Amino acid sequence: MTATEPRDARAAGDAAEVSGRPRRDPTPSVLDPAIAAGHRRDGWRMMRSSLRPSTRWIVYGVAGSISWAVGKIGLGLLAGTAVDSAVEPYDGPELVLWGIAIVVTGIFVALMTGLRRYAAFAISLRSEADLRRRMYAHLQLLHFAYHDRAQTGELMSRGSVDLKQVQTLLVFIPVTGANVLMVAMTTSVLFYINAELALWSLTPLPFLAIGSAVFSQKLHPIATAVQEEMADVASVSEESIAGIRVVKGSGAEPMQRERMTAATSRLYEESMNMARLRALFVPLLELLPTLGLVAVLYVGGRQIVEGDLTLGEFISFNVFIIYLIFPLRLLGLVIAQASRGAASAARVAEILATDPEILDRPGATPLPEGPGEIRFEGVTFRYGTNEPVLRDLDLHIRGGEAVALVGSTGSGKSTVARLVPRFYDIEAGSVRIDGADVADASLADVRKAVGTVFEDTFLFSDTIRANIAFAVPDASAEAIERAARLAGAHDFITEFPEGYDTPLGESGFSLSGGQRQRLALARTILTDPRVLILDDATSSVDPTKEHEIRAALRTVMEGRTTLIIAHRRATIALADRVLLLDHGRIVASGTHDHLLATSVSYREVLAEAEDDQTVDDGGGTP
Which among 401, 397, 395 is positioned nearest to 430, based on CA atoms? Predict the structure, then answer.
């Protein structure tokens, strides 16, 4: 099962989504040529838009490229003229002057080389940083349902490997522009010097153009496949590292090694396909200019003998032919990088083109002040195309009331908790806080009004203080300590040598499950929400320590609307009222004692939960 999919959705039973290895959504560009072309266009548009903030450096780069090309052409002409004017008749003083001119021009070319390369990196690195900011900002906007399906490793690959490929392509754009200009100017000069010789020397170019077109067409799907397989390797790596405790606890190291071996083998095969294609094309880049050089030597030598070409012109001509060799050799690298960069840009553009489903609606209004009253009116909700998890649900929680939702797995408890802060939009009905439909209210107001402590706690690799103050970074030390005391975390925090400044490791795994949950609770308390949702928030707390948190929770819950998703009797007892949920409907309501006495279903659900807890605690008598 996927770890990120809501439990109620998993219980709904979509086998394609929730069984076996997490499924990676196929990339549409691989499946449909029309969609592939659309994504490539989106990728190029995205890169163009990322270049706009770098207009100044683009101007510098263009100026540097033109100056560099003019300087290189000047060097070739100076060399030929120096031979005819000072070397062949041997005029020492004049030769010194020509030498100085060549050196000065060479220095100018070197400076322009530095300028265009610096401009190229300034443009590409700024664009990469801009795209990374846009991508991660967009990922923050995307709805829960998107992240339920997406794999962390896949997204990380797009945000690192793919963006680096885009950056490398953008580096080539100014450099390639300079080389294209160089080829155009060099070709013009070759025809100016000697049209017949130019025709002979440039005869291989049409064949090179045809080969380049075929190479580019065949390379793009392979480059796309390489990027996909790199993302797959990243996903397996992320899962293996993030789930290392599960892997080791299950003795599944051999299986994970096999998964990584399979993923890296697929990446190797696709990379070798790319290497074979390049190995066929690059020799063509080496051979064709060489044939042109041979033609220059043969035809040019004959023209010198016949007096139709001077030695200086012949030398200049050969210099210009050499000028053509490097840009033509670079062509293969540029085409390969363009294919990889375009494939990567399409994958990044695919994310940026995903519309967030949960946004402020036009005319969204502030959430009115109130005690935190919650109403579900005829709410129907389903995950994707699954069967409805909630069916025409009506629910009323008074402001300041504590209500426990109890039910078997898949009954819809966690779904109710996720709909209050509008993590998902409903299919029918309305969810209201203090009379306002959450769909019509400001999303920022709704999220500020509702604080959720999830069963699966997440802590950042930062200090304890920073984790508690995550949503309120300017909170005072007194406010942070008060939140920690209310969550029952202060005592164990002060036992660390560095106290609140103790750094936590990855996801806070250096702490016990109960300690992590208490820090998560303190983090939510600090935001002072009017509605508090505890989604199995005490499930990882040692039962022998649970009384400490219960006492703290009573203080936190006082005067605050609280929705408790719980299985333990002691946690359920914190609620003023208990609702029994079954297949998305409320089938019983009352106090804990009343339901124990009157509802067989309620007793069965508690018995099932206690059996599960006994297994989690290592067996023994309930």
Answer: 395
* 127 touches 58 (CB < 8 A): no
Helix residue ranges, H only, 194-252: 195-202, 205-242, 244-249
Q: With CA atoms as reference, report the closest residue to 3 among 450, 413, 382, 458.
A: 458
CA angle at 394 for the pair 389 and 398, rounded to the nearest 5°: 125
- Whole-angstrom distance, CA of residue 147 vs CA of residue 156: 13
Other residues' Cβ atoms within 10 Å of the Cβ of residue 502: 16
Which amino acid makes up residue 229? E
Who's near 151: CB < 8 A, 6+ residues apart? 22, 24, 235, 238, 239
Side chain identity at 106, as an amino acid letter? G
* Strand 390-397 relative to strand 374-381, pairing: antiparallel
Confidence of residue 274 (pLDDT cuts 50, 70, 90): confident
Q: What are phi and psi of 250, to 5 degrees?
A: -100, 0
Contact assessment for residue 223 and residue 334, using Cβ atoms and an 8 Å cutoff? no
Q: Are 526 and 495 in contact (CB under 8 A)?
A: no
Cβ atoms 521, 537 nearer than 8 A = yes
Q: How many CA atoms lie within 13 A of 292 on its CB side?
A: 30
Is the CB of residue 449 less than 8 Å from the CB of residue 529?
Answer: yes
Q: Which residues lie closer than 8 Å to 111 by C-beta, 6 or more apart?
A: none
- Give the closest residue to 397 by CA, choosing from 381, 377, 415: 377
Q: Closest Cα partner for 168 from 285, 339, 295?
A: 339
- Could you give all domains of the chain from N- to C-terminal order, each with its CATH number? 53-352 (1.20.1560.10), 374-616 (3.40.50.300)
CA-nearest of 526, 533, 527, 529 to 397 is: 533
**Most trustworthy range by pLDDT among 66-70, 197-201, 429-433:** 429-433
Confidence of residue 37 (pLDDT cuts 50, 70, 90): low
Give mean pLDDT, residues 181-194.
84
Residue 307 has pLDDT above 90, yes or no: no
Count of positions (residues) in the chain: 622
Phi, psi of 234 (to 5 degrees): -60, -40
DSSP string, 580-592: EEETTEEEEEE-H
* Helix axes of 33-51 and 163-193: crossing angle, nearest 10 degrees: 80
Write the CA distances from 176 to 173, 321, 571, integer angstroms: 5, 18, 67
Do 159 and 136 contact (CB within 8 A), yes or no? Answer: yes
The residue behind tokens 């080829």 is 183
Q: How far apart are the first and last CA of the chain?
A: 28
Rounded distance between C-alpha atoms, residue 379 and residue 166, angstroms: 45
Question: Cα dihedral angle (176, 181, 182, 185), rounded to 10 degrees?
Answer: 170
Give CA–CA dist 121/113, Å, rounded.
12
